[in-house]
Design brief:
Layout: H1 3-11, H2 18-29, H3 35-52, H4 59-72, E1 76-77, H5 90-96, E2 98-99, H6 101-115, E3 120-122, E4 129-131, E5 138-139, E6 146-147, H7 149-160, H8 176-193, H9 197-210, H10 215-227, H11 231-244, H12 248-262
Parallel strand pairs: 1-2
Antiparallel strand pairs: 3-4, 5-6
Length: about 270
């Protein structure tokens, strides 16, 4: 079974084995860091976390304590610039104790599962967040800071602009597939920015396999195919993007690109 198949096998379990599935995504890119090694590392981390957790009542308090304990142990948001793919690859995040909010959240979710804390992910725009169902706040996975409605509005404005209003769709609980699709998008962007289109293409393909793709997902893969000089594959994704788009200006631009890609190349003399 290859890493992609192993990832989807973990997702097919009931309940899904989210953490191991995310590890197999990393193995696709770094086969020298096997999933078993990372699982051993998280076992050791779980012992360290448990040893330092205070005895608290209430799931919200326990969840915040777990995140603060991870912070005490050195886990923090990766502030490297430019950000590298290692910030989204769980074995490296476990080694370096630095990562993107989603990567740190995946580790916290696995530790919370082991502790019996009902922590869930929230696909908030621009920054992945956590929540205990029923709590009146969200949690920042990088620090454990509580985020109330006003904090969420401020965070949304920083990422999408002050004209976007906070609504219920921004606060939905993320499924395992949605979290891994977001992880794959993160990796696609990081690999592409690093000038690694073949690695980014693996992530772009996985994005489409994990759930409903967006116009942006097809356009991102089309750009990778353009870089790799695969015109037929590029055209396929442009056509899919056109079918999904409901923006008139975007549709016009896509038609122009498709028309241009259909023109025969001039012969050299």
């Amino acid at each position: 079974m290859d890493p992609r198949q192993a990832c989807f096998a973990c997702l097919a379990l009931e309940p899904p084995n989210l953490f191991e599935a995310a590890l197999w995504i990393a193995v696709e890119h770094e086969p020298h860091l096997p999933a078993a090694q990372a699982l051993h590392a998280v076992d050791n981390l779980a012992h360290q976390v448990t040893a330092g957790l205070p005895l608290l009542e209430g799931d919200a308090e326990r969840a915040q304590a777990l995140l603060r304990r991870l912070s005490e142990l050195g886990f923090a948001e990766d502030d490297d610039f430019p950000l590298q793919a290692r910030a989204a690859l769980l074995p490296q995040v476990l080694q370096r104790r630095r990562g993107q909010p989603l990567s740190l959240a995946l580790i916290a979710l696995e530790l919370a599962r082991r502790e019996g804390i009902p922590l869930v992910g929230v696909n908030f725009p621009g920054r992945f967040l956590l929540r205990v169902p029923g709590a009146d706040h969200l949690l920042d996975p990088t620090s454990g800071r509580r985020l109330y409605t006003r904090d969420c509005r401020d965070l949304l404005a920083r990422h999408l602009g002050p004209q976007v209003e906070l609504n219920a769709s921004h606060l939905l609980t993320a499924t395992a597939r949605e979290m891994l699709q977001r992880l794959s998008r993160n990796l696609r962007q990081l690999h592409q920015a690093a000038g690694a289109p073949l690695a980014a293409l693996k992530d772009a393909q996985r994005v489409l396999e994990l759930g409903e793709p967006s116009v942006a997902d097809h356009l991102a893969r089309a750009e990778l195919y353009r870089q790799l000089d695969c015109p037929q594959a590029e055209r396929y994704d442009l056509e899919r993007a056109l079918l999904l788009s409901d923006d008139a200006a975007e549709q016009w631009q896509l038609r122009r690109r498709l028309e241009a890609s259909a023109l025969p190349k001039k012969a050299l003399h």
